[in-house]
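Technical annex, item 7. During the second reporting period the consortium partners agreed on a shared format for inverse folding records so that results from different sites could be compared directly. Each record opens with the tokenized structure and is followed by the designed sequence. A conforming record, contributed by the partner at site C, is shown below for reference.
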């Protein structure tokens, strides 16, 4: 019996030693120890942008703003109400195609994103919004301005930036007020716009405002953004002798229009972009200093009086080795709208996040407006564009007055010819 007892004791000691060794090995191999706090799962959020095809340049600028914001949020502790959960981005490339935009949006929804941001095109956004509504997924519009994107009783679509009506109304009003102050009234206006949902929306507003704002729309010229030449269109505008030429388009087409207008000496008091992708873009300005000097643009922008905005611009310059653009500003700020909603929702449940977005009252932002909030249609009633003019090679806020950095130069002699 003594031998049997000894053997049992040895087996017990051996077993305890084996289990102790196994415990040490598994802990060293990364198995969770009892009581160790688990890191919270990352919060998935998706974006759909035209990262290839004609709008790739603009889309990349917006994405840069998103990436900068995500790094800032994650670097400062993530979403604190979710235990410090980090944001992770799931990408979608629409190539500016409606069907591809729909399929990319659905793929990201199926992958469990808490919200979807984008796209750049109003046409793609109009189609995607029905899918996000069915999937009860918050859809934060990025740069798309067409008015009808929030129509139809939608509950999950939100737009932080000005819609087409606000963009057109406030930009035209700012130009008319500036002209009156210079004692050079604007009576005749010509309009060129790309023929998609975005440009057509802007053109409709400029035409509708003519009667109430006291000017005549002497030419309205829709065009295909892939057109290789705008000589004929601008010759027609020159013959109409407008006081002002307003242009709503994307980067490549707007650049070509400005170059052609300069060669033809189109004969206006100013060239004005309306939510234009080029005329306040730092790259376009840097590559075309003489052409762009004193050109105007009514566009979303940052508040130059804001210390935080200045810090964001410095961080963007350091990371991407280029100045931040209007689209970068939008990508950055809309990310913080979602971050604010996640903190208040303390949940990744899409319905709870949607409700938190709807109750947004965000005063800590970098835009030229009062608090960011949303009405029952998902529009931000405080959204407004800045009136920008390139001065000394830099897009400069010249209106509204409370955000202005400098006084506008108007009329612009070189466009008058």
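Designed sequence (site C submission):
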């Amino acid at each position: 019996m003594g031998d049997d007892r000894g053997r049992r004791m040895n087996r017990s000691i051996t077993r305890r030693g084996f289990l102790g060794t196994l415990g040490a090995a598994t802990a060293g191999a990364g198995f969770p120890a009892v009581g160790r706090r688990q890191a919270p799962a990352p919060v998935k959020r998706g974006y759909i942008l035209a990262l290839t095809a004609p709008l790739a340049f603009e889309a990349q600028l917006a994405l840069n703003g998103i990436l900068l914001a995500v790094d800032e949020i994650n670097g400062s502790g993530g979403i604190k109400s979710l235990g410090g959960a980090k944001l992770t981005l799931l990408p979608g490339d629409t190539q500016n195609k409606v069907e591809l935009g729909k399929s990319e949006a659905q793929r990201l929804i199926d992958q469990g994103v808490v919200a979807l941001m984008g796209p750049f095109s109003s046409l793609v956004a109009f189609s995607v919004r029905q899918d996000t509504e069915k999937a009860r997924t918050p859809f934060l519009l990025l740069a798309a301005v067409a008015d009808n994107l929030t129509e139809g009783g939608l509950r999950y679509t939100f737009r932080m930036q000005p819609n087409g009506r606000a963009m057109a109304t406030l930009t035209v009003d700012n130009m008319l007020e500036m002209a009156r102050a210079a004692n050079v009234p604007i009576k005749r206006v010509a309009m060129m716009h790309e023929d998609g949902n975005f440009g057509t929306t802007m053109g409709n507003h400029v035409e509708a405002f003519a009667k109430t704002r006291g000017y005549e729309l002497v030419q309205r010229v829709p065009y295909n953004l892939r057109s290789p030449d705008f000589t004929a269109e601008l010759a027609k505008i020159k013959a109409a002798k407008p006081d002002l030429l307003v242009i709503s388009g994307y980067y490549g087409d707007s650049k070509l229009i400005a170059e052609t207008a300069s060669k033809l000496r189109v004969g206006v008091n100013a060239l004005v972009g309306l939510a234009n992708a080029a005329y306040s873009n730092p790259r376009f300005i840097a590559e075309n200093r003489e052409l762009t000097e004193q050109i105007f643009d009514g566009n979303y922008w940052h508040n130059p009086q804001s210390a935080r905005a200045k810090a964001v611009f410095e961080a963007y310059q350091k990371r991407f080795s280029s100045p931040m653009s209007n689209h970068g500003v939008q990508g950055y700020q809309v990310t913080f709208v979602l971050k604010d909603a996640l903190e208040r929702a303390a949940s990744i449940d899409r319905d709870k996040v949607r409700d938190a977005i709807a109750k947004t009252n965000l005063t800590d932002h970098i835009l030229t407006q009062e608090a960011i909030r949303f009405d029952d249609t998902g529009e931000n009633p405080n959204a407004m564009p800045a009136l920008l003019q390139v001065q000394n090679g830099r897009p400069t806020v010249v209106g509204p007055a409370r955000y202005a950095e400098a006084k506008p130069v108007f009329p612009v002699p070189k466009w008058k010819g």
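The chain has a mean pLDDT of 91. Residues 180 and 186 are 8 Å apart (CA to CA). All partners now use this format for quarterly exchanges.
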